[in-house]
């Protein structure tokens, strides 16, 4: 089979379908929002920076204002290093965890939840205690319920009805039920024998982990005889949701880590199962990044593209392009924290170290689409589980549908306490990760070049499977496209020696790397811990 051709057809298919369904295809008002790829792509053909009129100085420059960069700034400020300047490309800091507003309603542009931190995520726990989201009471850690996802949390659209939870149902004694139990046992065994932690740096890396990292999750599942379509759909969905690409793309290490580093996998009916509690906000994790940004005040410089970072013997030079002022700036810093994705960092650092060059070549990135749909009225619901925060549509596995990239939607008004449902914003997520570089590039290109109108139509068409009244209720669609949203933990990525080297700065270094890419995959806990570690290491150097 020519996979490439099939997948290209997959992207175009819904447009054709929309036209066939009779009459003109629906069109929506809206726009691309949230990011300027033109600004970021200036790095591809860097012009010689115009001679800046002044040179500015600082103790520490942080490049990149995502979760990692903001965590580094917080660590430095807590260590008493105040002369910290943070440079962020976009108009607002937050990176993949930024927010948006439609008709006065807050909604996410990317990351939208944070699970209750596990026992290894000390730094995240500490942050949440500091902010009062967690507190200790009678020897237990208690979460502030106002920030926890309200019930019902999630539901699955399958066979014409909504089902509570995300696991396809299994009859008692069925093959599916047996396979759920077997997978749960395998996760528990891997957890016991090998050890998994979140953040990953808190777990040892053994030969057993390396063996899992050498094959795809799909190949590992097949080797265990785990072939049930319901189980495989769910695991594929989980991989796309966390890693931006399916179980045939990510490593078996990543597939198991998803469950083993959290609360395991629980088959339906497992009495010990607790539904994972998560913090969420209407604007998603922008609630967190805005709170992290606030103390920086004027030391946060947004709309600035850092074009070149040159490490010299006594200081680090930075060439910065201000998009708003359309002028170059020249900065000298004693130390720099580079909180950038690897593919950007390797372009920015003059004479990049070998580990950075290797890591940038090894780590693929998944494109994502986030579509915020403003609805003039609530949807008429179908039978089954009640409207939830996270609403996922089962995909029967027809690989020719563009919608197979879709992960469902969250309702931005779910956390509101209004007594009666009304207008809302649904945020739909599509993870466009693929197996090979050519397919990835094709999806990225489609996001960049296909007409804007095609994308809301695809998203709405997909959700209309469960919500036939959706197309008529969409007032506006604001879409955020990410060309290189997150690292895909494909085989070999997590075990990469180059990644490990970047996360462990040499003594006396002036350049510290901090970005979720260094973990080989992207979640808040990894980004925050890596940023905190880089900021703390930079602060320590001032004391030594
Ligand atoms: C659609 C989507 C949904 C997600 N959902 C969740 C979720 O619900 N929960 C969760 O835990 N994680 C989620 N994630 C993962 C998310 O990526 C991490 O949680 C985290 O936000 C990553 O932070 P980071 O700092 O590592 O990277 P980034 O967010 O990539 O930050 C890098 C920053 O560097 C800036 N930058 C880039 N180049 C330059 C330059 N040359 N000069 C200056 N600045 C530059 C960027 O603009 C960006 O702000 C999601 C990711 C995506 C894409």
What does this structure look like?
With 544 residues, the protein is of the alpha/beta class. It folds into 3 domains: 3-32 and 366-487, Polyamine Oxidase, Chain A, domain 2 (Alpha-Beta Complex), CATH 3.90.660; 39-99 and 283-362 and 490-543, FAD/NAD(P)-binding domain (3-Layer(bba) Sandwich); 177-261, Guanine Nucleotide Dissociation Inhibitor, domain 1. 33% of the residues lie in helices and 23% in strands. The strands form 5 sheets. The chain has an 8-stranded mixed β-sheet. Strands 2, 3, 12, 13, 14, 15 and 21 form a 7-stranded mixed β-sheet that branches. Helix 1 packs parallel to helix 13 (437-449), helix 3 runs parallel beside helix 17 and helix 7 (217-223) packs across helix 9 (252-260). The protein is globular, with a radius of gyration of 23 Å. The termini are far apart. Mean pLDDT is 91; it is low at 1-23. Flavin-adenine dinucleotide (FAD) binds at residues 40, 63-69, 87-90, 95-97, 110-114, 305-306, 339-341, 344, 348, 368, 370, 429, 482, 485-486, 515-516, 522-524, 527.
Task: Enumerate the distinct ligands.
Answer: flavin-adenine dinucleotide
Unreliable segments (pLDDT under 50, ≥5 consecutive)?
A: 1-23
Distance between the termini: 60 Å
Largest sheet data = 8 strands, mixed
Mean pLDDT across all residues, rounded? Answer: 91
CATH topology of the largest domain: FAD/NAD(P)-binding domain
């Amino acid at each position: 089979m020519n996979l490439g051709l099939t997948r290209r057809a997959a992207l175009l298919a819904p447009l054709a379908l929309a036209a066939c369904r009779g009459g003109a295809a629906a069109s929506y008002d809206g726009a691309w929002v949230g990011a300027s790829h033109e600004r970021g792509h200036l790095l591809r053909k860097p012009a010689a920076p115009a001679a800046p009129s002044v040179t500015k100085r600082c103790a520490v420059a942080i490049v990149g204002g995502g979760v990692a960069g903001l965590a580094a700034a917080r660590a430095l400020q807590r260590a008493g290093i105040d002369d910290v300047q943070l440079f962020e490309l976009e108009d607002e800091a937050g990176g993949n965890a930024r927010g948006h507003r439609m008709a006065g309603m807050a909604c996410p542009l990317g990351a939208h939840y944070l699970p209750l931190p596990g026992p290894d995520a000390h730094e995240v726990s500490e942050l949440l205690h500091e902010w009062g989201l967690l507190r200790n009471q009678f020897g237990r850690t208690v979460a502030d319920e106002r920030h926890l996802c309200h019930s019902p949390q999630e539901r699955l659209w399958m066979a014409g009805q909504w089902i509570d939870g995300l696991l396809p149902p299994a009859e008692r004694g069925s093959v599916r039920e047996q396979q759920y139990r077997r997978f749960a046992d395998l996760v528990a065994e891997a957890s016991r024998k090998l050890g998994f932690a979140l953040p990953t740096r808190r777990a040892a890396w053994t030969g057993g982990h390396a063996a899992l990292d050498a094959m795809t999750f799909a190949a590992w599942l097949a080797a265990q005889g785990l072939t049930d379509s319901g189980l495989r759909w769910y695991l594929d969905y989980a991989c796309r949701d966390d890693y931006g690409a399916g179980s045939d793309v990510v490593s078996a290490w990543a597939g198991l880590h998803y469950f083993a580093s959290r609360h395991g996998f629980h088959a339906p009916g497992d009495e010990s199962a607790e539904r994972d509690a998560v913090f969420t906000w209407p604007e998603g994790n922008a609630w967190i990044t805005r709170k992290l940004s606030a103390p920086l005040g004027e030391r946060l410089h947004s709309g600035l593209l850092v074009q070149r970072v040159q490490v010299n013997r006594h200081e680090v030079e930075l060439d910065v392009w201000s998009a708003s002022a359309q002028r170059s700036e020249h900065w000298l810093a004693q130390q720099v924290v580079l909180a950038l994705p690897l593919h950007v960092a390797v372009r920015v650092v003059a004479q990049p170290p070998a580990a950075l060059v290797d890591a940038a070549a090894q780590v693929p990135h998944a494109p994502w689409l986030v579509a915020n749909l403003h609805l003039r009225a609530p949807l008429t619901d179908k039978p089954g589980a009640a409207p939830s925060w996270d609403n996922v549509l089962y995909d029967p596995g027809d690989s020719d549908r563009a919608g197979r990239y879709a992960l469902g939607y969250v309702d931005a008004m779910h956390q509101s306490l209004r007594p009666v449902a009304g207008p809302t914003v649904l945020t739909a997520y599509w993870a466009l990760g693929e197996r090979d570089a050519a397919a990835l590039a094709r999806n990225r290109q489609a996001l960049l070049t296909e007409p804007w109108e095609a994308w809301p139509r695809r998203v709405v068409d997909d959700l209309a499977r469960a919500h036939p009244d959706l197309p008529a209720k969409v007032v506006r669609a604001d879409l955020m496209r990410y060309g290189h949203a997150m690292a895909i933990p494909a085989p070999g990525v997590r075990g990469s020696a180059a990644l490990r080297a970047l996360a462990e700065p040499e003594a006396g270094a002036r350049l510290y790397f901090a970005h979720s890419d260094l973990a080989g995959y992207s979640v808040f806990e990894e980004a925050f811990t890596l940023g905190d570690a880089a900021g703390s290491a930079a602060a320590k150097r001032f004391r030594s």
